[in-house]
Amino acid sequence: MRAIVTLLTLLFIAIPTAAFAHPGHGPDIGAVAGFLHPMGGLDHILCMVAVGVFVSVLGGRALWLVPLSFVGMMAAGFLLGTSGVDLPYVELMIGLSSVVIGAVAASGRSMPVAAAMGLVGLFAVFHGFAHGAEMPANAGGLEFALGFMFATALLHLAGIGAALSLSRLAGRYGRPVGQAVGAAFALGGLGLLAGWL
């Protein structure tokens, strides 16, 4: 229950700043701008929390290896975005990320940790690319990257904490509850792609 209250508190704190998370809406400085950037897009938030839900369904070593893979591959995508490389379908892949990750969590099927790392890592490249391509000129690359990587890790932790707390509250129905949460994230992603959200 405490994890749910903490998650809701973080979301309520982040909502007023969401409008300022993208370039041109206030002081874009270093790590603060990087931290706020993922918080400013529902597509980013859905995916990053969905990763936490996904790994809570998988359990074991996936709880830390899969989020670590996401953050690492997002850093690689950031480097691509800042270097001027043209990466196609960025917005589509960002939109599909919560759909696919949520759907895999909803399936409840076992998956090797390496495969889960590869799955989230693929989508992370596109999220990182968007952060790099949209980085304000005055933000400072390293500080900006550290900021969005920290925010991403917190969103992963929020997803893990909320999903594990709900599972514990549900008792023997914990796994189906985790799967239902994954399905909700997949539907949220579909809503974004369709323009409903």
Index terms:
0% strand, disordered N terminus
Question: How do the helices and strands follow one another from N- to C-terminus?
Answer: HHHHHHHH
How much of the sequence lies in strands comes to under 5%
Helical percent range? over 70%
* Number of E strands: 0
Q: Multimeric state of these chains?
A: single chain
Description:
By secondary structure, this protein is mainly α. 78% of the residues lie in helices and 0% in strands. It is built from eight helices and no strands. Helix 3 runs antiparallel to helix 4, helix 4 packs antiparallel against helix 7 and helix 7 crosses helix 8. The longest helix is centred in the C-terminal third of the chain and has 30 residues.
Structure at a glance:
It is built from 8 helices and no strands. The chain is mainly alpha-helical. It is globular.
List the helices and strands and how they pair.
Blueprint: H1 2-17, H2 30-39, H3 42-58, H4 62-82, H5 90-107, H6 113-133, H7 141-170, H8 174-194
